[in-house]
Design goal:
Elements: E1 2-8, E2 13-19, E3 22-29, H1 34-41, E4 46-53, H2 60-68, E5 71-73, E6 83-84, H3 94-106, E7 111-117, E8 120-126, E9 131-139, H4 141-150, H5 172-196, E10 202-207, H6 211-217, E11 227-229, H7 233-244
Parallel strand pairs: 1-4, 4-5, 6-9, 7-10, 10-11
Antiparallel strand pairs: 1-2, 2-3, 7-8, 8-9
Helix pairs in contact: 3-7, 4-5
Length: about 250
């Protein structure tokens, strides 16, 4: 038996099949249809299905899928082994909650700092006792570059540069890179330091589209030995949630 895991975001839908904890296959769609999903499932026998969405699900494929496979909808009521102390759990982003569940499931009994780099950068912390209290949200890498351009009259729109490693810029373009990328680097280090200052054992888990870029920013820091890159952390968290559901 396999688990079907579906994560519906604002721009893309990610679909994965797991055999227990093993990720067998994953695909990303902009607007999937039921034929694509059924082709993706192929000959796999689906035991459990979980859907997580940042929006109300109205797509036609969803109705067809529900007719064929029993579905569990991921929400803040699914504990999946963690103690959620968030004051307004109904407003907690499903992706953030799934990532924290995934971190605790993959690396139990140790403190985990979960950093996801996408449209926004999210920082979440779960302690060794599986207690989650909350985190932080800040503008993402591309959003910062875009803001510098859109909210000024003369500054250009430039792209991130993973090879940039200067303490300051000596022209306008490099000054923007320094401000944006060093700003994120110092932000990463500051948040991590704040979370782990009382911890003897911890992980820094990087996820999301900018995880490799963040790893580059931190490669020479004191935190480098503690970094683990988990590009499919949300999907793994959803899989953990469906496995623990009704256990």
């Amino acid at each position: 038996m396999t688990n079907l895991v579906i994560d519906i975001g604002n721009s893309f839908t990610k679909i994965a099949i797991f055999e227990k904890d093993d990720l067998l296959k994953v695909e990303q769609y902009q607007q999937p249809d039921i034929r694509q999903i059924e082709n993706f499932i192929g000959s796999n026998i689906i035991g459990k299905t979980i859907i997580s969405s940042v929006k109300q699900v109205k797509e036609a494929w969803h109705l067809s899928l529900v007719d064929k496979h029993p579905v569990v909808y991921f929400n803040s009521g699914i504990k999946a082994g963690i103690n959620n102390h968030y004051k307004t759990p109904g407003t907690l982003g499903a992706d953030r909650l799934a990532a924290v569940i995934g971190a605790n499931y993959l690396y139990p009994a140790v403190a985990n700092v979960v950093i996801s780099g996408g449209t926004c950068i999210t920082y979440d912390y779960i302690d060794a006792g599986a207690n989650y209290f909350g985190g932080s949200i800040s503008p993402g890498l591309k959003m910062r570059y875009k803001a510098v351009n859109e909210f000024t009259a003369a500054l250009p729109l430039i792209n991130a540069d993973s090879d940039f490693d200067a303490a300051y810029g000596d022209d306008t373009e490099s000054a923007i890179k320094s401000g944006v990328q060093n700003g994120i680097k110092y932000e990463l280090e500051g948040f991590i330091n704040n979370y782990i200052k009382t911890q003897k054992a911890y992980n820094i888990i990087l996820s999301g589209g900018d995880s490799i870029f963040f790893d580059t920013l931190l490669k020479n820091s004191i935190f480098a030995p503690y970094i683990k890159i988990e590009p499919y952390l949300v999907l793994k968290g959803l899989n953990a949630a469906i496995q623990k559901h009704n256990d």
